[in-house]
Amino acid sequence: MPWYRGDCHVHSERSHAGELTPGELVTAARAAGLDFIAVTEHNTSQTHEHFQAYGEEDLLVVLGQEVVTDRGHWLALGLGLGEEVDGPDQVHRGGGLCVVAHPFAPYPSGTFRHALDGFDAVEVWNGRWSSDLPWNADNEAALARWAADLAHGRWRPAIGNSDVHLKDQIGTPHSVVRAEQLSTDAVLAGLREGHCWIAESAAVELSFTITAGDCRAEVGDRLETGGRTVLVSAEVRGVPDAEVTFHTDRGRTSGGARWSTSAAESAFVRVEVRHPGGRMAALTNPIFLSAGSSSTSGR
């Protein structure tokens, strides 16, 4: 099944502080190596038609909206043309996805304080991993909270987006999604099931698999191990001197490209890839392990 790269948090000049036209954003998305974008203006769908006019076979435009409230922001993805958002139930009835946006952004409405019920995924990585910019999201805090929830059995898939408002932001970072085809329904299904990982840029390539005998699992899959030891493998390209680490429900367990574990030792495994100095280059959703008869399935 193919993998597609996309940025699901995109603003034009129609949003507060946005400076780019839909045409400029689409051109920049192609230059950044993206296969899809989601238009998510602040509390409006007025640019849906403008973005759709630029979408072609090589670039899917997913219709959405960023819902801005005084208790946090969230993304509604997979809307109908011109559809305005009332709440998560409405989005779900239309087959869409509801994503917690930048849960630890450093401004009054940026901290997410809604109950998580009704939200399908979390934007763990928003914009640059870290910077001195006053609006830069605290991505380390978002990752720590998401990882703690995952370890306690409260997993929602992690995604990453640029939250682009200005030139040269789109695609940093973006989500790499396994989907049956390049369509809104297929891409949202891949995100919903956690068949995705986050890349700093299109230069970063990552292959993360776990094998048990003849059975092989990728990001977001569940691997029935038959009680056997499994081989965990992560291959990274595009990150010089990368620090690759494996993480389980017991915390960080191993560094390097290969590692062995079992379902008795690890309920899941996920990967982080960092540059020297600690800046994130890529991170994945988990592969889940259980000790049943050897097989692989989706979430």
Automatic annotation (TrEMBL):
UniProt-listed SUPFAM superfamilies: PHP domain-like
Domain of life: Bacteria
Domain Polymerase/histidinol phosphatase N-terminal: start-end pairs: 6-71
Family matches, as SMART domains: POLIIIAc
Molecular-function GO terms, alphabetical: 5'-3' DNA exonuclease activity; 5'-3' RNA exonuclease activity
Pfam family name, one: PHP
The protein's name in its UniProt record: Predicted metal-dependent phosphoesterase TrpH, contains PHP domain
Source organism per UniProt: Paractinoplanes atraurantiacus
